[in-house]
Amino acid sequence: MEQVLGYVAIACGMIISLGAVGACIGIALMGGKYLEASARQPELMNELQTKMFLLAGLIDAAFLIGVGVAMLFAFANPFVVA
């Protein structure tokens, strides 16, 4: 029983950490491309900024769904029978 809970803790940590790394890399790449695009065509900056913030929210939402799944496994694990 204790060994299974240890594996669950490791899995939850991996879900959250890999999701955070992926979200950070995705937002960083998107921010860099936004700066490049707004430097090339400054007249499109407002439209690009709106789309950038929309995509940042979607990227962050995917990470938060992973956090929710990790919390499900941490506190109400359906695989561990007490």
Q: Could you describe the 3D structure shown?
A:
The chain has 82 residues and is mostly helical. The protein has a single domain (2-75), classed as F1FO ATP Synthase (Up-down Bundle). The chain is 85% helix and 0% strand. It is built from two helices and no strands. It has helices spanning 2-40, 45-75. Helix 1 (2-40) packs antiparallel against helix 2. It is elongated and about 60 Å long. The chain starts with a helix and ends in a 7-residue tail after the last helix. The mean pLDDT is 90.
Helices and strands, with pairings:
Blueprint: H1 2-40, H2 45-75
What share of residues are in beta strands?
A: under 5%
- Supply the number of helical segments: 2
Radius of gyration: 18 Å
Largest sheet: none
The pLDDT mean sits at 90
- What structural category arises from helix and sheet content? mainly alpha
CATH-wise, what's the superfamily?
A: F1F0 ATP synthase subunit C
Helix amount: over 70%
CATH top level assignment: Mainly Alpha
The structural domain count equals 1
What letter string, H or E per element, gives the SSE order?
HH
**Head-to-tail CA distance between termini:** 8 Å
Q: What is the CATH fold-level name? A: F1FO ATP Synthase
Task: Label the overall shape.
Answer: elongated
Q: Gist?
A:
The protein has 82 residues and is mainly α.
Describe the structure using short key phrases.
85% helix; 82 residues; F1FO ATP Synthase; mainly alpha
